[in-house]
Amino acid sequence: MQVRALLGDYPNTAALKSGALRSERLSFDFVDQPLPQNSFKSVIRGEFDVAELAIVTYLQAFAHRKPVRLLPTVVMTIDPHPCIAATAASGIRKPADLAGCRVGIRAHSVTTVTWVRGILANDFGLDLDRVHWVAFEDPHVPECVEPPNVSRAPAGKTLAGMLAAGELDAGVVMKKEVDGVRLRHVIDDPEAAAQDWRARTGARPMNHVMVVHERLAREQPWVGEVVQGLLAQSKAAMTMPLAGADNLVSGIDAMRPSLELITRYAWQQGLIPRCFAVDELFSM
Predict the structure, then answer these.
(1) Domains (ranges, CATH) in the chain?
(2) Verdict on whether the full-model pTM lies above 0.85
(3) What is the pLDDT of residues 221-248, one digit of tens each?
């Protein structure tokens, strides 16, 4: 059986994407998409049989009955603590200083942004409503309603450009962009803070998971089982080190603490109508 699939190019997916790892029961027609997130709107419309999807996008898709179902496999992770950074000129030195500031984000419902806001609110007491969030993209799920303190960046502007020009005070960026001079971490010693957070919550910062079209999940459940098995083998076959590889967990129980926390964060931030139970997220 051949399935239309979306999957990013990561060290843990290389064996599967390259064809070095094969299944007698399942073959993959991988779309050519260097940035899987650019196809997430298509995923929730049911245009893929098997696909990578951001977990917060899945939570919203589940809430609005989109035709996808979650597989208990994490394929991509980003540590959120180092991703909130402020410009040197802003004077921001700690999370509380973000109140009243303009903070750039790729989109309101991006998973890393949701993790960052949840940590800022729950661990550092920041009132998220006092921050002016500037988004550059629409949410993947059209039913997502942005709160009044989220605005859209002017057309043609970029997050990096607005930070450099002083048009934003801070932003949720990639860790590698924070040089300690032009951009500084808002959370002091973010690596230590991340270790403490993980020890306290038991959570691992999952970002992208795998989903299967609800039709296949219902009529051909073996497809999801084969996909999970192949991804586990592909991860085991990695030939190069991958930061955060221990966050790429599989299985409902292994994912449970992280799913519980990201679901709570998403609910607190108004991204989903209620705090779903973990087992509910895997129901048909």
Answers:
(1) 2-77+205-282 (3.40.190.10), 81-200 (3.40.190.10)
(2) yes
(3) 999 999 999 999 999 999 877 888 889 9
